[in-house]
C-alpha cells in the first residue's frame, strides 16, 4: 500500500511530433473506416429489404384488386321462376349458369355455337352464376327486370385486364382497305403498307428457323458420314471373314452390318427431310415480299374493319387473308384511319386466352363494363381452387387461433419456468443440466418439433389432425425456450439493488420477486414473448407435419377445427400452377408482413406502457 | 482530530451529550462470528456488543469485513450462496441464526439502508407504503397515509415532496433518494437500522442532511453505520469499531478511539498512514 518503488522515469506526452500526428491520423482513419463498414452493412441490409419489399409489393398489390364485368342482366322470369310464385326454394334450384349463358350470347350473337358459348362462360368466374342467384334470392322482385350486376371474371380474364396475359398494340391503318366479304374467309387489301411490319416479323422468324435448320442439317451430315464409314468398315471385314472362311465371325458381322445400314438409311431420310425444309425456308427468306401463312407460334394479327374483326391467317405487305371473328357490317371499302390493325404480341399457343376471348374482353371493356375494384373477398373467404375466389381469411383465423393457443401455454409456462430457474432454483448440477438443455432446445430445427407433435399429440393423445390446437401446442414447444431465455435475461437485468431494497425492509424472497423484480422485467419478457410469437407466426415446417397443409376451404370456428395458417397458405399457393396464384401468394405475404408489423407495434407499445410505470 | 465540536456543513452541532456506553442496554451481541465466502475467510472470530439507542460505526479499509458483518446482522448474507456464517449473533438475547427464526420477520425488525440509494421504481408514496403493507401494519388507507407521512417527516423529506407523493421515487435527487430509503426503512418501525456507507454516493450537503437525520434517529433506534469517512464516524457515532483484514481490531467510545487509540493499527489508520 505504502510500498515505495523507484520513481518511474518521467515520460513527456508528446503531441506535436510527426509520430504523434501520424498516430492521431491513424486513429482518425481507423474510426472513419469503422464508420464506413457500419454504413456499408446498413446499406446492404437496407438494399435487400427494399428489393424484397418492392418485389413483393409489385407482385402482390394487383391481387388486392379484381376486375368485374358490370353487364346489364335481365333475369327472365321464364328461366328462373317459371311458376311465377317467387318461391325462394324454387329460385335457388334454377339454372343461373344457363341464364348467364343466354345473356352472354345475346351480347355476342355471332358466338352462338357450343364451343364459343363455353369459351364465353369461361371468361366468368364459376361464382358468377351464384352471384346472380344471390341477387335474385335477396330481392325476388328483380326477376323480370333489368339490373346491372358486377359479375366476377375468371382469373385469366382478370389477369388480362391487369396486363398479365399479353401485350396488345393497336395501330390505325395508313391506307384504304377493301374487304372481299363479310363472313368466313375473306381477303383484305390495303392501299398502304399496313401489314408490312407483320410480314417482316414473320420473315425474321423464318430466318431464325432457317439458321436452326441449317445447324441440324450440318449435324445430320456428320452423323451420316460416321454411319457410312461404319458400313464400309463392316462390309470390308465381312468380305475378309468370308474369304477366310470364318464361320463364327461372319453371322455376327452380317447382323451388325444390317443394323448399321438400317441406321444409315433412317439418318439419310431424316437428312433429306431437313434439307427439303431448309430449301423451303431458303426460298421464303429469299423473297421478302412473298405472302406468308401465320401460325399460332407467331403474334396474332387482327384487323378491325367495318364493325367486324378479321383474324389474319396469311399476310403479305399490303393485304391479308383471314377468318372473320366478328362479322363485318359491310364489304364496302374503308378509308384510311377508319380501320385499324391489332397485334396481340404473345403467340396464341403460349397464352391462356385465345384471340376470340381477347376480342370479347376488349369488346366488353370498350363498352365500359369492366370495373376494377378492391378485392374484399380476399379477406372474407377461405381457400379455393379458383384463384379469383381464394382468400386469406382461413389462414388469418387459423393463425390467430394457433397463436392464441401458443400464447396461452407459452407465456405462463415460460415465465414461471424462468422465474423459478432464475430466482428460486438451487444452483446445482441438475439445474445446470436443465439450463443447458433449454439453450439446446432453442437451437433444435423446427421440423423436429413437428415430428414430436405428430408422434405425441396426434398419434399418442389422438388430438384432431390439422387443428389449431395441435399447431398451437407444437409452436408452444418451439417458442418456449426462446421465451424462457428472454425472460431469464430480463430478470437478470433487474439491478440487484432493487431486490436488496425489498429484502431489506422485510419482504420475503417471493414478495421481492413478484412485487419488484418481475414488474421491472416485464418489458423484457414482453419483448421476448412477442418476438417468439412472431417467430411462431412465420413458422411453417412443423405445421406441415401435423397436417395443417391440407386444402381447407372452411373458416375454422374453434381450435379443434381443421385449419391452416398464413405461412402454410402462402406455401400452398406458391405451389399452384395457375398464374393468378402468383399474385395471390405475394398478397398473402403482404398480409403476413402486416400481421408481423402489428405484432411488433404492439410489442413496442406494451413496452412503453410498462416502462412508463417506473 | 477535534471531535469535541464536529462541524456539519456550516452549522456547528451541539456536542453530543456524553454517553456512557457501558450503561446502555446491549441490543446486538455477537460471539465468535466467523464468515467464509467459499474458501476465503472474511471475518475471524468476531465479538462485539452494540448498544441500543446509539449510533455505532464500523470503520476500516476496503475489504476488512465491516460490510460483511453488517450484512450478517439482518442475514442479508443468506442471499449469497457461497457465504457461510458461524458463531452467534443475538438481538435482545434472541439468536438470529436460530433455525426456528423467520428471516423475513428479522429483516422487518432490522432495517437496512444501502450504499447506493435504491428506491423502488414506483411513486414516493408507494416506496414508503410498501413495507407497512406487506407487514400488515396498516388496515386502512388513512392509516397508510399516516404512516407514510410520519415516516417521511421523520426522514426529513416530507416538506420537500409533500406535493408530489405520486411522482416516481427515482426522480428525486441522490440525497432525497437516500432519505426516501431511510423513510422506507423506518416505515416498518424496526428496532435496528443498518446503514452501509449511506453517504458514499452523495455530495457534502446531502451528506450533512443525512448525518443530521442519523443523529435524530438515534433517539429511537439502534443504528449501525459502516463508513469510509472517519470524520463521519467521529461526527455521528458514539461507538466506533475498527476492522482490519477480517478482524475487529479495536472497539470503544468514539472519542476514545479517535483521541486515544490503544492499537497501533488503529492509530495508523485514523491518522491516514494506510488505507
Explain the overall architecture.
The complex is a heterodimer of chains A (614) and B (275). Chain A has 614 residues and is an alpha+beta fold. Chain A is 59% helix and 11% strand. In chain A, the strands form two sheets. In chain A, strands 3, 4, 5, 6, 7, 8, 9 and 10 form an eight-stranded antiparallel sheet that branches. A three-stranded antiparallel sheet of chain A has the order 2-1-11. In chain A, α4 packs across α6 and α19 packs antiparallel against α20. Chain A is extended. In chain B, strands 8-9-10-5-11-12 form a six-stranded mixed sheet, sandwiched between helices. In chain B, strands 4-3-6-7 form a four-stranded antiparallel sheet, covered by helices on one side. Chain B is built from ten helices and twelve strands. Chain B is globular and about 55 Å long. Helix content of chain B is 33%, strand content 26%. The chains are: A alpha+beta (614), B alpha/beta (275). Chains A and B meet through α16 and α17 of A and α2, β8, α3 and α6 of B.
Detail the topology: elements first, then pairings:
The complex is a heterodimer of chains A (614) and B (275).
Chain A: H1 18-60, E1 65-74, H2 77-80, H3 88-93, H4 96-107, H5 114-122, H6 128-138, E2 146-152, H7 155-161, E3 168-172, E4 177-179, E5 185-190, H8 196-244, H9 249-286, E6 292-293, E7 300-305, E8 308-315, E9 319-326, E10 340-344, H10 355-366, E11 370-374, H11 377-380, H12 393-424, H13 429-441, H14 446-460, H15 468-492, H16 496-504, H17 509-537, H18 541-545, H19 566-574, H20 580-612
Antiparallel strand pairs in A: 1-2, 1-11, 3-10, 4-5, 5-9, 6-8, 7-8, 7-10, 8-9
Chain B: E1 7-8, E2 11-12, E3 26-37, E4 40-51, E5 55-59, H1 66-73, E6 83-91, E7 94-95, H2 103-109, E8 110-113, H3 124-134, H4 141-154, H5 158-161, H6 174-186, E9 192-196, H7 204-217, E10 222-226, H8 230-236, E11 239-244, E12 247-253, H9 254-259, H10 264-270
Parallel strand pairs in B: 5-10, 5-11, 8-9, 9-10
Antiparallel strand pairs in B: 1-2, 3-4, 3-6, 6-7, 11-12
Amino acid at each position: 500500500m505504502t510500498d515505495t518503488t523507484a520513481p518511474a522515469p518521467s515520460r513527456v506526452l508528446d503531441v506535436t511530433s510527426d509520430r504523434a500526428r501520424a498516430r492521431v491520423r491513424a486513429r482518425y482513419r481507423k474510426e472513419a473506416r469503422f464508420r464506413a463498414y457500419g454504413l456499408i452493412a446498413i446499406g446492404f441490409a437496407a438494399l435487400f429489404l427494399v428489393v424484397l419489399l418492392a418485389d413483393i409489393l409489385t407482385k402482390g398489390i394487383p391481387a388486392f384488386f379484381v376486375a368485374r364485368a358490370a353487364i346489364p342482366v335481365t333475369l327472365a322470369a321464364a328461366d328462373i321462376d317459371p311458376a311465377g310464385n317467387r318461391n325462394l326454394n324454387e329460385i335457388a334450384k334454377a339454372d343461373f349458369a344457363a341464364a348467364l349463358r343466354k345473356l352472354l350470347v345475346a351480347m355476342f350473337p355471332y358466338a352462338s355455337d357450343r364451343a364459343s358459348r363455353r369459351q364465353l362462360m369461361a371468361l366468368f368466374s364459376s361464382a358468377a352464376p351464384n352471384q346472380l342467384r344471390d341477387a335474385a334470392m335477396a330481392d325476388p322482385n328483380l326477376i323480370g327486370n333489368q339490373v346491372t350486376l358486377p359479375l366476377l371474371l375468371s382469373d385469366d380474364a382478370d389477369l388480362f385486364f391487369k396486363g398479365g396475359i399479353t401485350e396488345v398494340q393497336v395501330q390505325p391503318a395508313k391506307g384504304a382497305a377493301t374487304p372481299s366479304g363479310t363472313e368466313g374467309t375473306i381477303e383484305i387489301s390495303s392501299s398502304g403498307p399496313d401489314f408490312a411490319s407483320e410480314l417482316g416479323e414473320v420473315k425474321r422468324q423464318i430466318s431464325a428457323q432457317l439458321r436452326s435448320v441449317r445447324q441440324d442439317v450440318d449435324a445430320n451430315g456428320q452423323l451420316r458420314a460416321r454411319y457410312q464409314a461404319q458400313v464400309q468398315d463392316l462390309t470390308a471385314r465381312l468380305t475378309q471373314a468370308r474369304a477366310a472362311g470364318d464361320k463364327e465371325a461372319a453371322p455376327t458381322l452380317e447382323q451388325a452390318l444390317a443394323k448399321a445400314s438400317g441406321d444409315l438409311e433412317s439418318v439419310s431420310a431424316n437428312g433429306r427431310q431437313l434439307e427439303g425444309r431448309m430449301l423451303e425456308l431458303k426460298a421464303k427468306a429469299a423473297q421478302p415480299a412473298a405472302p406468308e401463312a401465320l401460325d399460332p407460334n407467331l403474334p396474332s394479327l387482327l384487323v378491325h374493319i367495318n364493325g367486324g374483326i378479321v383474324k389474319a391467317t396469311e399476310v403479305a405487305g399490303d393485304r391479308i387473308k383471314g377468318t372473320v371473328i366478328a362479322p363485318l357490317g359491310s364489304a364496302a371499302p374503308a378509308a384510311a384511319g377508319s380501320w385499324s390493325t391489332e397485334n396481340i404480341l404473345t403467340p396464341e399457343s403460349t397464352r391462356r386466352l385465345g384471340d376470340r376471348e381477347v376480342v370479347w374482353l376488349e369488346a366488353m371493356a370498350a363498352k365500359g363494363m369492366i370495373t376494377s375494384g378492391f378485392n374484399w373477398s380476399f379477406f372474407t373467404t377461405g381457400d379455393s381452387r379458383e384463384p379469383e375466389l381464394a382468400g386469406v381469411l382461413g389462414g388469418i383465423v387459423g393463425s390467430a387461433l394457433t397463436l392464441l393457443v401458443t400464447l396461452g401455454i407459452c407465456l405462463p409456462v415460460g415465465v414461471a419456468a424462468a422465474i423459478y430457474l432464475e430466482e428460486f432454483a438451487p444452483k446445482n448440477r441438475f439445474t445446470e443440466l436443465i439450463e443447458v438443455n433449454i439453450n439446446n432446445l432453442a437451437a433444435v430445427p423446427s421440423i423436429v418439433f413437428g415430428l414430436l407433435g405428430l408422434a405425441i399429440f396426434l398419434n399418442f393423445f389422438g388430438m384432431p389432425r390439422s387443428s389449431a390446437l395441435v399447431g398451437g401446442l407444437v409452436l408452444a414447444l418451439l417458442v418456449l425456450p426462446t421465451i424462457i431465455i428472454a425472460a431469464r435475461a430480463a430478470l437478470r437485468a433487474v439491478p440487484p439493488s432493487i431486490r436488496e431494497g425489498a429484502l431489506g425492509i422485510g419482504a420475503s424472497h417471493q414478495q421481492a420477486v413478484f412485487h419488484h423484480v418481475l414488474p421491472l422485467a416485464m418489458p423484457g419478457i414482453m419483448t421476448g414473448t412477442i418476438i417468439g410469437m412472431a417467430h411462431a407466426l412465420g413458422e411453417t415446417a412443423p405445421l406441415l407435419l401435423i397436417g395443417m397443409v391440407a386444402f381447407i376451404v372452411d373458416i375454422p370456428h374453434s381450435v379443434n377445427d381443421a385449419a391452416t395458417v398464413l405461412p402454410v397458405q402462402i406455401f400452398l399457393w406458391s405451389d399452384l400452377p395457375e398464374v393468378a396464384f402468383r399474385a395471390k401468394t405475394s398478397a398473402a405475404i403482404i398480409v403476413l408482413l402486416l400481421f408481423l408489423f402489428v405484432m411488433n407495434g404492439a410489442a413496442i407499445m406494451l413496452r412503453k406502457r410498462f416502462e412508463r410505470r417506473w | 482530530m477535534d471531535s469535541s465540536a464536529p462541524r456539519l456543513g456550516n452549522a456547528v452541532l451541539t456536542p453530543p451529550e456524553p454517553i456512557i456506553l457501558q450503561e446502555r442496554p446491549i441490543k446486538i451481541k455477537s460471539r465468535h462470528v466467523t464468515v467464509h465466502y467459499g474458501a476465503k475467510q472474511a471475518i475471524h472470530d468476531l465479538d462485539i456488543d452494540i448498544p441500543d439507542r446509539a449510533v455505532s460505526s464500523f470503520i476500516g479499509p476496503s475489504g476488512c469485513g465491516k460490510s460483511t458483518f453488517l450484512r450478517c446482522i439482518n442475514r442479508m448474507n443468506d442471499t449469497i450462496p457461497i457465504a457461510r456464517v458461524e458463531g452467534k449473533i443475538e438481538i435482545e438475547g434472541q439468536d438470529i441464526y436460530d433455525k426456528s427464526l423467520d428471516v423475513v420477520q428479522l429483516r422487518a425488525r432490522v432495517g437496512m439502508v444501502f450504499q447506493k440509494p435504491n428506491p423502488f421504481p414506483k411513486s414516493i408514496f408507494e416506496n414508503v407504503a410498501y413495507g407497512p403493507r406487506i407487514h400488515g401494519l396498516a388496515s386502512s388507507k388513512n392509516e397508510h397515509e399516516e404512516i407514510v407521512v410520519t415516516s417521511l417527516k421523520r426522514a426529513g423529506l416530507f416538506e420537500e415532496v409533500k406535493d408530489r407523493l405520486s411522482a416516481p421515487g427515482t426522480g428525486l435527487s441522490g440525497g432525497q433518494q437516500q432519505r426516501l430509503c431511510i423513510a422506507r426503512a423506518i416505515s416498518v418501525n424496526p428496532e435496528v437500522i443498518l446503514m452501509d456507507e449511506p453517504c458514499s454516493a452523495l455530495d457534502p450537503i446531502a451528506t450533512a442532511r443525512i448525518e443530521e437525520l442519523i443523529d435524530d434517529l438515534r433517539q429511537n433506534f439502534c443504528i449501525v453505520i459502516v463508513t469510509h469517512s472517519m470524520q463521519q464516524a467521529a461526527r455521528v457515532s458514539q461507538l466506533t469499531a475498527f476492522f482490519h483484514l477480517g478482524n475487529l481490531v479495536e472497539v470503544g467510545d468514539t472519542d476514545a478511539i479517535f483521541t486515544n487509540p490503544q492499537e497501533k493499527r488503529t492509530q495508523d489508520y485514523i491518522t491516514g498512514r494506510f488505507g
